[in-house]
Structure formats: C-alpha cells, structure tokens
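Format notes (please read before filing issues)

Several people have asked whether sequences and structure tokens are stored in separate files. They are not. Every record keeps both together, in the order shown below: the sequence lines, then the token lines. Line labels are part of the format and must not be stripped during preprocessing.
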Amino acid sequence: MRALISVSDKTGIVELAKELELLGTEIISTGGTYKKLKEAGIKAVEISDITGFPECLDGRVKTLHPAVHAGLLAMRGNPAHMEQLSRLKIDPIDIVVVNLYPFKQTILKEGVTREEAVENIDIGGPTMLRSAAKNYQDVAVLVDPADYDRVLAELKENGKVSLETKFYLMQKVFMHTSSYDTLIADYIRKQRNDTSFPGMMTMTYEKVQEMRYGENPHQKAAFYREIVRGKGSIADAVQHNGKELSFNNINDTNGALELLKEFDEPTVVACKHGNPCGVGSADNIYDAWKKAFNADSVSIYGGIVVLNRELTLAVAQDMKNIFLEVIVAPSYDREALELLKTKKNLRLLELKDIEVPQRPDALDLKKVNGGLIVQTIDDKLLNEDELKVVTDRAPSAKEMEDLKFAWRVVKFVKSNGIALAKDKQSIGIGPGQVCRIWAAKQAIDHAGELISEDATRGAVMASDAYFPFEDCVEAAHEAGITAIIQPGGSIRDEDSIKKCNEYGMAMVFTGMRHFRH
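Then the structure lines:
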C-alpha cells in the first residue's frame, strides 16, 4: 500500500503517517510535509524520487506528473490499466492525504496584496484530490484531518478502507475543491469591482452550528456564515449565556441589528417575529431602553432586544424581570452581565462592531422553489436632497426629526408597513398587512391600546410605500397625527396631498420606497 501525503494544515499528520507506516504503508511526500515527516523519524520518499523530476518553479510544479496521476487514476479492476502501469513502471497510489494552500487565511489577512493571494492558489493539490476522488473505488482520499481516525480504524480492523467510506471521502473532496474555487472566483470578482450578476452563481459558506430544528420543529436547520464578511454580523457575536441560538433567534436578531445600524445616538430596538415592536432613541441608553420597552410592553415578551451602547446595570435590572430570548450589546457592564446570567436560558451576545453596516457589495438572497432570487441589499435610507415637502405646511423641526426616526423604523417593517413615532419613540407599528389602510389602523389602534388613548396626538406617520388612496391620511388626522412621510409616486398623490392641506397636516415625499417581504 502506498500513501501520498502533502498538506498545508499539518494537524495530526505525523500521527497519521506513523500509524500508516506501522501498517506497512510506503509514504510519499513533498516539500514542507516531507521535511516534517523526516524530522519525526518517518521513512518518507520524496516526490521527485517517484517522478524522476525535481520540484521546480519555486515549488509551483511538484506533483503534476504521470507517475503521480496514473498511479491515482488507474482502475485496479481494469486489466488494460494495470498492464499499462506495469509497462510504464508506475506503481499505484492507494491513499492520498492532501489539503490545500491557505488561500482563505491569506485573503483574510490585513493588507494582503493581490500577488500574495494569487501565489496561494493551489494547483497541484486540487488536481491530485480530483484524480484520487474520481477513482474513489480504489483510492481513499483524505482532505479533512477529522477523517484520519475513521480511515485508520478501518485499515486496522479490515486491512482496507470500505467503499462506503471512500464514497463519503469523495463527496468531501468535491465539496472542498468547489468551495476553494468559489472563494478564489469571489476574490477575483471583488478585485475587479465586478457588481454584475454572473451567468452562473456559486457561493461558499462555512457551517457554524447544527440546530435542533428550523422555523418549526419538523424542519432541519443549520447556521452557515460567509467566509469573507464585514464586521457587525451576528455570525461574529460572542455568546456569554443561554442556549444555542435557534433558527428564528438568528433571523429575528439579524433584522433587529440591521434596524439598529440606522441610528447613531443611543438606541434600543425590540423585535418579535421579524418585525420591530419597540424602538427608542435618547441621550442615554437607559432612557432609550425605557422608550423601546414602553412602546410595546406586551409584544416584547419572548422577544429580542439589541442596544448600540454598553448595557448598564440599570438596564439589566429592568430586563431581569422580563422574559426575553436574546439580548445583543457592544459590551456589558460587569455587574449587569452577572445579573443577567442568573437567567440561565437568556442568550446574551456581545458584538463589538454592532454599528458597522453591511458591506455595500453584500447580496440579499431568497430561495424560491426551483431557484434563487438575488438582489443588492437595501443599504439606503433616503436622499436628503430629494426630500420634498408637497403640502402647504412644512413640518416643524421636531416633526422632521420624528419623521426621519419613523422612516428608519418603517424601513424594517414587513410590507405593507406603517410606523408611528413621537419624541424619538415608536408608538405604533402596523406590519405585513395586505391593505395599507389596515396597517395604518393597526398602528393607530396599538398606540391607543399599548401606550395611551391620546398617544397619537402630535405624532407622525411613516409608510414604506405610497398611499394609493386618501384613506390613510383620513385615519391619521382622526388620530391627531400631524405629519406624514412616504415615498410618493401614486397616480392619486394629489388626493392625499389635498386632504393633508385640508387638515393642516405636513407631508414629505422621499422618492424612495422600502418594501420588505
């Protein structure tokens, strides 16, 4: 039996080689791996002794030779193949242990140059892996140190690696090389600033965790993260307490975080089932928390809360008395953290770069039956120079401040979405209605039920898309709302504008909508 070993990640490689040698295996190796094995006292044979050709071009060419690939690809059950090997004086290779140049680690380094990245594109490694995997019936190919023990156990017990295991290893090879090539292609695309949608889309992610279930208990689920990603992602949060995050926890927390990133001042966002239920901004994080909580003290139960300032002891003392699923903050006061840790199931996450927005080249992906719809992320809020006051009365400075606050909130409310705000606090949110007036009425009703009967007096309204009729203006006026922000663009815009003028209300058009499905 012969094994070819050439690895970048040398985890466990000496132990594997020693065990193979004890089983009577001839070890062939290359470069740094050969040196490491020899230093460990293993009788390895250098690859150039097999090929009869020296490594050249600074190691770029080592294994690209018929003596290697014929030994890998020859089908043992094919007499013609074996006769040709005999005639060419080439011996079969039965085990391949290869992992690739560290391209991922290279491009993740700060300040890496394109030349460094390109030099870490492996050529011979993927070629050997593919050759060995194609001939999986006869060759066991190891790309992951986690599989070393399984192969050794089978060799010790049966004197060979089972076909089932070799087929499993074949799958791992092609998943590995596919991911490797995708990472390279993505790096090149970014280097070229190519923002087009390619004819063939390939993506690679690495698994973070298996989950107990998905959205519902009968669904399987796992969490994967992008290999090259920006900061401020839930994938990089440090968990200090509680159970593993669930599918719904991650999805809902991500939405809450993306809304939080729209704010610079101390802000707290409470979220439930993918929609914000309470948002508050203030001069300090405690007052922001009180606003977010009081905005909807009912829906926050079992919800998710994210903060963009350190979580203080005063905030923690309030939170301790509420059932929450997840809390995320950039840091925790030491006493606050210890206090919240007494709630053993409460997931406490620390995310240092919580304020960093998604990279502008990020993509939004949605799976549909039989395909994928892809778009750039909605990374704009509004264009200040395109804001247009369309009513006789312009909003006051305070109204405009609240209008922009409400606009930030409604951007992250499921369509049809309406958000009401006053004094930098959401006071009523109407998400996901099939009719816009229903969303408006829901938001108004919730404000009256959850805060006070006159909560909407002097408040403002934001709508994620235009008003197709004047009914939302009517409902807003009846509730005492004084100003509205919406995209505009309906053929009936004049009806809404006229109605606002009739009631002395201010209306601002953004020229930009924020559908969210």
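For reference, the curators noted about this record: The chain has 18 helices and 21 strands. The longest strand covers residues 205-211.
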